[in-house]
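User: Working on a comparison across species. This one is DUF2249 domain-containing protein from Schaalia naturae. Can you predict its structure so I can line it up against the others?
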Amino acid sequence: MTPDEHAPETLSLHRDRAEAQAAVDAGAPVLVAKSIPKAIRHGAVIGAFESLAPGLSMIVVEPHDPTPLLDQIRGRFPGGVDMEYVVEGPDEWRVRLIRR
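Assistant: Here's the predicted structure for DUF2249 domain-containing protein from Schaalia naturae:
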């Protein structure tokens, strides 16, 4: 199969991983949430996000879709956060959180 024949989802996955690496290379901190004890995980991610100056971003890495965490952040920072999925599974999700 030539590169032009790859399925769109395969190309998307490679592009997403490249974007995630670009964020790391650009100095955006990466927080691997599964390395934080579950009892304090959301609080730790929220605290890390809160410490960002407006305009800065961080990448959160989870082994599952972090929708509950993202909903919690949206509720705590209404209008103060932009979110974009950089990698969407199946083994890892990376979400860029940008402080407004």
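For your comparison, note: Residues 1-14 have pLDDT under 50 and may be disordered.

User: Helpful, thanks.
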